[in-house]
Amino acid sequence: PLLQRLEMIETWSQHEFSAIRTLLEQRKQHGFIRECHGDLHLGNVVLLDGEIVPFDCIEFNDNLRWIDVMSEVAFLVMDIDDHDRSDLAWRLLNAYLEKTGDYEGLSVLRFYLVYRAIVRAKVAALRLSQTGLDDSETAAIHRELENYFSIAERCIRSRHPAMIIMHGLSGSGKTTISQQLIERLSAIRVRSDVERKRLHGLTPDESSESNLDEGIYDEQSTQHTYGRLAELAESTCNAGYPVIVDATFLRADQREWFRCLAEEMAVPFRILVCHTSHSILRERISEREALGQDASEAPVAVLERQLETHDSLSDEELTRSYTINTTESTYLKPTLDHLKEMLGEHVDVFHD
Fold first, then answer.
1. Cα 234 vs. chain centroid, distance in angstroms?
2. CB-CB contact of 288 with 280 (8 Å)
3. Contacts 24+ apart (CB under 8 A), 305-313
4. Which class for 345: exposed (0-12), middle (13-18), buried (19 or more C-beta within 10 A)?
5. For the residues of 27-47, what is the DSSP string, one character each?
6. Phi, psi (deg, nearest 5) at residue 83
7. In a designed cystine with 89, which of 81, 273, 283, 313 is the match (CB 3.0 to 4.6 A)?
8. Is 249 left (phi over 0), alpha (psi -120 to 50) or beta?
9. Helix axes 300-309, 278-291, angle to 10 degrees
10. How far apart are CA 219 and CA 141, in angstroms?
11. Beta carbons within 10 angstroms of residue 231's beta carbon
C-alpha cells in the first residue's frame, strides 16, 4: 500500500510542478531563492538561553542550501504539524507571511509541504535498512513513515478556500480572536494595520506619525489598503486556503466589496462581529497605546469617530454574521463550532 500511495504522491507532484513552474521561475527572478539553512526541521533547532537557534545547516552542497525561502518555511511547518502542534505550525507560517509579505508564496507552499514530508519519509525509510533494529524500533519507523505519508496526502487533498472578515470597532478584540482562529482553522490572516504600513514602506512597529484622517489614514490610503487586502484574500483563496481579513470593516461598501469577491470566487463568506462595551474599548486602546507594541495606531479619538460614523450591519448581512462578546472568556469554542457548522468542509477545526 505504501508503494501505491507513493506513486500517487509522485504523480501529483509532477503535475503540480508543471502547474507552478512559471511561478517558481518568477520567485527566482524576484529574489526568493536565497542561501538558507537547507535542513530546517525540529531536530536541527534548539532553545538556547531563551533564543530559538537553528544548527547543523547543509554546508556540503550549495544546491541544497540555495532554495526557495518558502521551501525552508514549509519544512519547519510540516515538521511541527507532524509533532501534533498544527496550531504552532500555522502560527509560524502566518508570522512569516506577516513579516515578509510573501503571500504569493502560498501558491507554491503546498508543493513544498508535500516535498518536505516525502524527504523525511525517505530518511525514515533508509533507517529501516540498518542492521540490528529490534521490533519496537522497526515499528516506530513504520509509524513515522505513515505519519509523513498522511501529511503529504492531507496537503494534496485539503483545498478548502473560504473568506472570513472581522468586523468591529478599534479595541474590540479582532486581532486577538483572529490569531486564535488561524491557529485552529489552518487559515491565513491578512491585517489592515500591517498591510497599510507596508504600502507606505513602514514596518508594523514603526509609527507613521499620522494624525486622524491624514497621512497613511486618509481616504485614499484607506481605499488602497482595502484594495490590497482584497488582492491578498483572493490570492489566498486561489491557493486553496481559508483567509481571515483582520480590519474594522465599519463601512457597508467595504463589507459588500468582499462579499461580492467571495461570491465571484464561489467560496463561503462569513462576518465575525467583535463586540464589547465602550468603556472596555477605551480601556484596551489606552493600554495598547501605553505599550506601543502593536501595529495598530488607533487612539481613543479614532474610536470616538468610529462610534459616530460606522455603518451598522444590514438585515441581510446579519444572516451571514456571527457576534462574539469579547468580554467573555468562553467565546472560542462556540465560535469554532459556528464556523464548522456554517463552512463545513471548508475549514478544519482543531480544538485545544
1. 14
2. no
3. 305/212, 306/169, 306/170, 306/248, 306/250, 307/169, 307/278, 309/250, 310/169, 310/248, 310/250, 310/251, 311/250, 311/251, 311/252, 313/167, 313/255, 313/271, 313/273
4. exposed
5. HHHTT-EEE--S--SGGGEEE
6. -90, 20
7. 81
8. left
9. 150
10. 59
11. 14
Q: CATH 3.40.50.300 spans which residues of the chain?
A: 163-346
b/e sequence 294-331, b meaning 16+ C-beta within 10 Å: ebbbbeeebbeebeeebeebeeebeebbbbbebeeeeb
Q: Are 79 and 120 in contact (CB under 8 A)?
A: yes
Give percent helix, percent strand, percent coil of the chain, each to the nearest 5. 60, 10, 30
Dist CA 239 CA 256 (whole Å): 23
Per-residue DSSP letter, 330: -
Extract the C-alpha cell encoding 201: 514602506
C-alpha cell at 226: 482595502
Q: State the Cα–Cα distance between residues 287 and 289, nearest whole angstrom.
A: 5
Report helix, strand or coil for 209. Answer: coil
CB-CB contact of 226 with 251 (8 Å): no
Q: Kindly state the cell numbers that stand for 91.
A: 502560527
| Candidate CATH numbers 1.10.10.10, 1.20.120.10, 3.40.50.300, 1.10.3430.10; the one for domain 163-346 | 3.40.50.300
Instruction: Specify the pTM.
Output: 0.92
**Secondary element (H or E) of residue 239:** none
Give 4's contacts (C-beta < 8 A, 6+ positions apart): none
pLDDT in tens, the chain (352 residues): 788 999 999 999 999 999 999 999 999 999 999 999 999 999 999 999 999 999 999 999 999 999 999 999 999 999 999 999 999 999 999 999 999 999 999 999 999 999 999 999 999 999 988 888 899 999 999 999 999 999 999 999 878 899 999 999 999 999 999 999 999 999 999 999 999 999 999 998 888 887 777 788 899 999 999 999 999 999 999 999 999 999 999 999 999 999 999 999 999 999 999 999 999 998 988 887 777 666 675 678 888 899 999 999 999 999 999 999 999 989 999 999 999 888 776 566 655 5
Residue type, 223: Q
